[in-house]
Specification:
This is Nitroreductase. One of its GO terms (molecular function) is oxidoreductase activity. Residues 7-160 form the Nitroreductase domain. It comes from Desulfoscipio gibsoniae DSM 7213. Keywords: Flavoprotein, FMN, Oxidoreductase. The chain is α+β, with helices and mostly antiparallel strands and 180 residues long. The chain has a single domain (3-159), classed as NADH Oxidase. It contains seven helices and four strands. The chain has helices at 3-9, 23-34, 50-65, 70-76, 102-119, 129-136, 139-143; strands at 43-47, 89-96, 123-127, 150-159. A four-stranded antiparallel β-sheet has the order 1-2-4-3, sandwiched between helices. The radius of gyration is 16 Å and the shape is globular. Flavin mononucleotide binds next to strand 3.
């Protein structure tokens, strides 16, 4: 797939088949994450352990319900909603909290990985909600071997798409101006 097609085709996928992605695809996705623009350290933690994924799902859902944030609470209340959407692979991005560019560094890597996943015929979703789980329960960071001094900032779910669910509308606002 050509790069512009992959960028145009990428959509947030919110329903996944249980089938695990191939290791070769995972390595390509990681390579894409590692080669994103960055200004400082970050870590990509690959979680494919079903028990840990279930624990993150459960804690993230509870955190969304208790967040006090109308949007998160309304999403969590949707029938059948689970924050990781059954994805068999979760790429968790963490970085030092003290670096003002950690959000940019991890998000650039995450975006590159979603485009690589699209190119490989896989579904993906950039997500903040796993961060809620890691904040609510610090034991998750230990279980996931998040490096000392690093905080989870965002994550990317990856897997084979299983159709459409919990879709969001891409807003079509005119947010471009030109100075020539
Ligand atoms: C900062 C940020 C946080 C997001 N967090 C989540 C999330 O936790 N769960 C989710 O399903 N989607 C999340 N998204 C994905 C957006 O909902 C999605 O990108 C947007 O609705 C546009 O849809 P598209 O990705 O299909 O084009 C997040 C996106 C951004 C930029």
């Amino acid at each position: 797939m050509n790069t512009l097609d992959a960028i145009a085709k990428r959509k947030s996928i919110r329903k996944y088949k249980a089938e695990q992605i191939k290791d070769s695809a995972l390595e390509e996705i990681i390579k894409a994450g590692k080669t994103a623009p960055n200004a400082g350290p970050f870590q990509i933690t690959v979680i494919q352990n079903a028990k840990l994924l279930a624990k993150i799902t459960e804690i993230a859902l509870a955190a969304m319900k208790n967040s006090g944030n109308d949007f998160l609470m309304s999403r969590a209340a949707l029938p059948g909603y689970t924050p990781l959407y059954g994805a068999p692979t979760l790429l968790v991005l963490s970085a030092p909290q003290a670096n003002p560019y950690s959000m940019a560094n991890t998000s650039n890597a995450a975006t590159n990985m979603t485009i690589a996943a699209t190119d490989l015929g896989l579904g993906s979703c950039y997500m903040i909600t796993p961060q809620l789980a890691f904040t609510a329960d610090p034991s998750l960071a230990k279980e996931a071997n998040i490096p000392e001094g690093f905080s989870v900032i965002c994550a990317v779910a990856v897997g084979y798409s299983d159709g459409n669910a919990f879709s969001t509308e891409r807003s079509d606002v005119d947010n471009v101006n030109y100075v020539k």
